[in-house]
Every structure is written in structure tokens, then in C-alpha cells.
Amino acid sequence: MDQPCEHLKGLVEASFAPLPTPLACEECLKEGTQWVSLRECLSCGHVGCCDSSPGKHATKHFRKTGHPVMRSVMPGQRWTWCYVHEVAGELAPVPATNKKESQSYGQA
Known about the structure:
By secondary structure, the protein is α+β, with helices and mostly antiparallel strands. The protein has a single domain (13-95), classed as 2-Layer Sandwich (Herpes Virus-1). 19% of the residues lie in helices and 18% in strands. It contains three helices and five strands; from the N terminus they run αββαβββα. It has helices at residues 26-31, 57-65, 99-104; strands spanning 38-41, 47-49, 69-72, 79-82, 87-90. Strand 3 (69-72) and strand 4 form a beta hairpin. The protein starts with 25 loop residues before the first helix and ends with a helix.
């Protein structure tokens, strides 16, 4: 798919809630299981484990709530996933402010 679905368009890191500290899958902690990778829900900030983990808590969260979008919270990863359309996306880069350009506006 060339274009992400409407759920993923325009998402940036700031679209998501700040990550909790410590960063963990609460369900895995309660169950005493280990996770492989962690995912964060766009709608509510829930952090759950990936489908490679025994609990698959991020997907279970989607099935329970219907919240359509999550992102990877692993270092260096910027991808997102829409459960509804089963399509991946990437967090859009935050536009850099060009000081030189903005300073030159209005000057003759």
C-alpha cells in the first residue's frame, strides 16, 4: 500500500501519550511472563507486548477496546500499525524550523 490508511496519516511521536516509567507490559508483569517488544496504543497510551511475546497483550488490547492504532516503542523504531486495515505506517518526521528563512521574511 503506497499511502497509509486514514488512521495513520500525519501521526508524529507527539500524537502518542508520554511513555510510562518504567516502560513495561503491565499484563506480563502481573502474569510473570516475559515480553519480546512493546507497543503503545494511540487512543489511551496502554503499553502491551507484541505478537512475538507469549501474551500478545497489544493485540488483546485492540480486540477488547477497538482502539485501532499502535506504535512500536522500541529504541530506534518509528513504525505504526493499524489493526483495522492491517497496514503499517511510519511516524512522520517533525518539521524542522528554519531560523534563517523565518528571519528573512518581511526584510527588504
